[in-house]
């Protein structure tokens, strides 16, 4: 199992999305989202190759994989490194993912 290391943008995404769900559906929905996001990340940590490389290839980011949450239209984007899972973003499927990823993954 590889530890997930969230980049600042991924941390910001997680908090922003939890806040967004909380504002629209209340505290319980925000907590459900946060718990599901964490569970999806645990899955990726246990099996890093489980994520799809399709969006990474489309965005000319070789090695970038994505893994969707089960009940929310959101995906983790990450690279598998030798020592960790390098989590770069957590993006909603309705966002312009290609443009966001093309803008950089710092």
How would you describe this structure to a colleague?
This protein has 106 residues and is an alpha+beta fold. It is 46% helix and 22% strand. A 4-stranded mixed beta sheet has the order 1-4-3-2. Helix 1 (8-25) packs antiparallel against helix 2 (27-46).
Q: Short summary of the structure?
A:
Helices cover 46% and strands 22% of the residues.
**What is the CATH third-level topology name?**
YaeB-like fold
Helix content: 40-55%
C-alpha geometry: globular
Approximately what portion of the residues adopt beta-strand conformation? 15-25%
Quaternary structure classification: single chain
Layout of strands and helices, then pairs:
Elements: E1 4-6, H1 8-25, H2 27-46, H3 54-58, E2 64-68, E3 74-80, E4 85-92, H4 97-102
Parallel strand pairs: 1-4
Antiparallel strand pairs: 2-3, 3-4
Give keywords.
four-stranded mixed beta sheet, 22% strand, single chain, YaeB-like fold, 106 residues
